[in-house]
Amino acid sequence: MAFRDAALRYGRGNWKAQQGRLLQLYAQGGATVSVRVDPGLHREIHSFGGHDVELCMNCGNCTAVCPLSEESGTSFPRRIIHLLQVGRADKLAQTADPWLCYYCGECSESCPRNANPGETMMATRRYLTARYDWTGLAGLFYKSAAAEIMALVLVGLFVVALFLVFHGPVVTSHVELNRFAPVRWVEFGDLVMAAVLTFFLLTNASRMAWNFMGGSQLLKISPLVYLQQIPTFLVHFFTQKRWRRCGSERSKRRWLTHLVLVSGYLSMLTLVLVLLRWFQTDEIHPFYHPQRLWGYYATGALLYATVDFMISRWRKAEPIHRFSEASDWIFLIMLFLTALTGIIMHAARIAGLPVATYVTYVIHLAVAVPMLVVEVPFGKWAHLFYRPLAIYLKSVKEAAATRAREAPAAAVEA
User: Fold this and answer.
1) Quick check: 399 pLDDT over 70?
2) Which domains can be identified in the chain, with CATH numbers?
3) How far apart are CA 190 and CA 282, in angstroms?
4) Which pTM was predicted?
């Protein structure tokens, strides 16, 4: 603790001296190259959960033990910690390195200073998510659990209010869910919500791409290169396969559980956004019907994975779950409650309990809609999109560089 306090005092009291030395490093041939630094960046990272940045002395041990450092092609994760310490927020936004980390925990477990570089990388991803977001809501929600919970509650109350005003006939003699909540209107609401969330997510992602690709430089790359690398994005979005290269059996098990969670989430999203008219029906199909089996799989996957992750976070048994922010818990709890209320509503419908079905249906949507509205563009969910996007943009950069090197040789041969 004494080391930590000393590092904090040094970071706060001697920043100007650090900044001056940084500028002298860039002096060549008598000329000084100015660089933009953010003296408060290390304190900003504190608010996103990176509490031990100042403890790192750049020994390089984390890079030596990281299974992905050689593949990443940089001194990873040491370089990111260095950028945080010297306040290079601009450089931080231009690198994919924070998104290439899957938090296997090898670096944190072997750090001689207990600087927890794995958690610093996690905090950096939260910081970047907030930086990409032009609304400012992501930063607000990450820094204030009360604000995030309030947003979830307000959206949930809005959903309840919609049903109180616009619900259909309440048939109590038997279950008629599609009269109480006409599927065409629910489907319309789903599509509107999907369009709004896609707008926020893609506009934030465009800010990420603009920073990462060097601003207008992204327009100088052939559209063909972007198209050729799309499979890279899709593979990493659906599989997160680089996680398996972290090496340890523990990491591979975590990857598999995460894959189950993503498959359950995407299954449920497909059922309610694309196949809602097939999925929300008053007809009770046999247990073995694809509609029910697919829904059971999605629910089981979400419940299993969220409970597993919550238990691990509670026990703090693994490095990836040793430190938890409020946003981590809120995301898992909302996913768990979405799946739980959905299966309870389904059980009430199968049992022929009309009032219970209608009430739990409203409760289910009052949980699921806020989870999507708040978490997809502004919360924990966003990393599912930003990570494969970073890998995709990195591959675009590398492919464009390769084409640029090969072009002169091809011209000479011609």
Assistant:
1) yes
2) 2-131 (1.10.1060), 137-399 (no CATH)
3) 19
4) 0.87
